[in-house]
Design brief:
Helix content: 40-55%
Number of strands: 12
Oligomer: single chain
Number of helices: 10
CATH architecture of the largest domain: 3-Layer(aba) Sandwich
Strand order of the largest sheet: 2-1-3-4-5-11
Shape: elongated
CATH class of the largest domain: Alpha Beta
Strand content: 15-25%
Structural class: alpha/beta
């Protein structure tokens, strides 16, 4: 997997230039080519997060005078591989991939590299060599931040040995594993028990169905943690329908609807911010630089932070997701 922590020291100059441009919300450089054709193979549009990621990428491409060729794999590995081959045939200048599966797209990745097309992965990484850069966030840290908030809330409420239900994202997905592992690390040694629920594919309707069964099987549940806010809100819906106002929920992604509940003092403990429009913006900027044969860092972290009732007012939430646009790369 891509190293999510280290940067190549020899790319320091490129990192500084990229950071400045993104921090100012400007094109990277007048020296970079305009009118590029950038391909984007997206895992799915069934999740609001990925819809907004697409929106951010489209806006950034348009602002830079580039053409974005967007193809939706709809969660189908075979379709994604066919889509990537199609984009290669179209002669894109850079290729963005958000993989359905981190292993299944490796042959198509290799084909793109063989064609001399720089490949940038976004949100989910790929288990293969040849990726120019990965743009995302530290999902393990995000899961850990939410886990620490859950532990703190239970301690403040005087609750010990709580049963916590975890509604998971997608089987085998890198983001799922990181958000799971980070959360579990935060709960280690706390005395609380995690019940790993099914994979609801980050979709609210799936989480509703899953939560109905989970609640019946675990009536003593105290907290529900979901790998994104959309699923957490689905779980919250079921809890409300069953008059279980005693159960707390927590999620990831900073969905504005979730932050609204946090602000109103509801049962939503917190979320880790994951502004998808900004992620799309950053990804296009990196793709543009890669297409210009500029050196880019292997991992571009778009940044995240925990939001709870203590700081929810600090983040604009006029859109579907709360806005969070930090200066990236710490430069």
């Amino acid at each position: 997997m891509l190293n999510r922590r280290r940067f190549l020291s020899k790319s320091a100059i490129a990192v500084s230039a990229l950071t400045f441009a993104l921090g100012m919300g400007m094109p990277l450089s007048s020296a970079y080519a305009e009118g590029l054709k950038i391909g984007f193979s997206q895992v799915t549009l069934q999740s609001p997060f990925y819809v907004q990621l697409k929106t951010g990428a489209e806006a950034a491409a348009k602002a830079g005078g580039d053409t974005l060729v967007f193809l939706d794999a709809n969660g189908d590995v075979s379709k994604q591989n066919n889509d990537i081959q199609d984009l290669i045939t179209q002669g894109v200048n850079a290729l963005i991939i958000n993989p359905v599966n981190p292993d299944a797209v490796v042959p198509s990745l290799e084909a793109a590299v063989a064609a001399g097309i720089p490949v940038i992965t976004v949100d989910r990484s790929v288990n293969g060599a040849g990726v120019t850069a990965h743009v995302g966030r530290d999902n393990k840290k995000m899961g850990q931040l939410v886990g620490e908030a859950v532990v703190a809330r239970l301690k403040a409420d005087g609750v010990e040995k709580a049963k916590i239900i975890e509604i998971q994202g997608d089987a085998g997905g890198a983001v799922m594993m990181d958000r799971r592992d980070g959360f579990h690390a935060a709960l280690e040694g706390s005395g609380h028990t995690i019940v790993e629920g099914p994979y609801a594919e980050y979709i609210r309707a799936n989480a509703v169905t899953a939560m109905q069964d989970l609640l019946q099987a675990n009536p003593d549940v105290k907290v529900v943690y979901a790998h994104n806010d959309d699923m957490a809100l689905g779980a919250l819906q079921v809890l409300k329908e069953n008059n279980r106002n005693d159960v707390l929920v927590a999620g990831v992604d900073g969905l504005s609807e979730a932050l609204g509940i946090i602000a109103d003092g509801g049962n939503y403990i917190g979320s880790a911010l994951n502004d998808p429009k900004y992620l799309g913006d950053v990804t296009i900027q990196v793709a543009r630089e890669a297409a210009a044969k500029k050196e880019v860092p292997k991992f571009v972290d778009a940044g995240s932070t925990l939001v709870t009732s203590k700081n929810v007012a600090d983040f604009p939430r006029e859109g579907l997701f709360a806005e969070y646009r930090p200066k990236i790369l710490g430069q």
